[in-house]
Design a protein that fits this description.
Layout lengths: L23 E5 L4 H12 L3 E6 L3 H13 L4 E5 L5 H15 L4 E4 L15 H22 L8 E5 L3 H4 L5 H21 L5 E7 L5 H7 L6 H4 L16 H8 L10 E4 L8
Parallel strand pairs: 1-2, 1-4, 2-3, 4-5, 5-6, 6-7
Length: about 270
């Protein structure tokens, strides 16, 4: 049986050490799931948070409320980050609210399963690449003039960039583009002491799973993640220490890398 209870209030037990004190972080896709967990953990580590989200205002406000309950500060701005002008707005909003940007987490995601590549329309292909790959580039480009030495860029890709997924062909490709751009950006920015790394999660239980796979598999909550060696999906809070590690300015000799958080799945293939 999958661990299908999603609740980032589990982060109340997170023990912080203050490694992100006085930092400002933009975290996209932070109205739920992995982004919400990362935003909360960063806030507990001392960072001020700006949440980028598409349309889930209740979720964004919940993230802010959780952060404030731990004594942190957070703001949120809605917008489709697949459009470059909204990435520019998010950067300017962050600068107006907090005066600096130290950490950028490109975590916004979208997937829509199709059992045949013939069913992937032009519109779906473009939307998937816009939200995953284009948004990552647009937001990085907008933030880059304001990033100083020691800044960190962290990109959330997927195990599917490495192994593929037969029902997520466009999503696998968009995540593959994210991996390639992460490595290219890392090579370009390393001499400026800006590290660019990423996380490639395996099956993580988030609201996106039921929203997308629920149409194909009404029992997705029962069997999601059972096929990995761990025998279960991960929870967002299980990833946050990796995101904190990659955001820490003391982690100064690691760039262009992806951490594989997947219950042993990728290592076994």
């Amino acid at each position: 049986m999958a661990e299908n209870a999603f609740d980032n209030t589990d982060l109340k037990a997170y023990k912080a050490s203050g490694v992100l004190a006085d930092k400002v972080a933009i975290v996209t896709g932070a109205s739920s799931g992995i982004g919400q967990a990362v935003a909360i953990a960063y806030a507990k580590e001392g960072a001020k948070i700006v949440i980028g989200y598409l349309e889930d205002e209740p979720g964004a406000q919940k993230t802010i409320s959780l952060i404030e309950s731990y004594g942190g500060q957070a703001k949120a701005l809605a917008g489709d980050l697949g459009k470059s002008e909204n990435c520019d707005k998010l950067v300017q909003f962050t600068l107006a609210e907090f005066g600096q940007i130290d950490i950028l987490v490109n975590n916004a995601g979208y997937q829509y399963p199709q059992t045949s590549p013939l069913d992937i329309t032009d519109e779906q292909l473009l939307k998937t690449f816009e939200i995953k790959a284009f948004a990552m580039f647009y937001l990085t480009r907008a933030a880059l003039p304001h990033l100083k030495k020691g800044a960190r860029i962290i990109n959330t890709a997927s195990i599917n960039a490495y192994r593929g997924h037969s029902d997520l062909i466009d999503y696998s490709g968009a995540n593959g583009a994210m991996v390639a751009m992460t490595r290219a950006l890392a090579r370009r920015l390393v001499r400026e002491e800006i590290a660019v790394n990423g996380i490639a999660p395996g099956p993580i239980w988030t609201p996106l799973i039921t929203k997308t796979f629920g149409e194909l598999n009404p029992n997705v909550a029962d069997d999601f993640g059972e096929d990995v060696p761990a025998g279960r999906p991960g929870q967002p809070y299980e990833l946050v220490k990796a995101y904190v590690f990659l955001a820490d300015s003391q982690n100064s000799y690691m760039t262009g890398q992806f951490l594989h958080m997947n219950g042993g799945d990728y290592m076994s293939t």
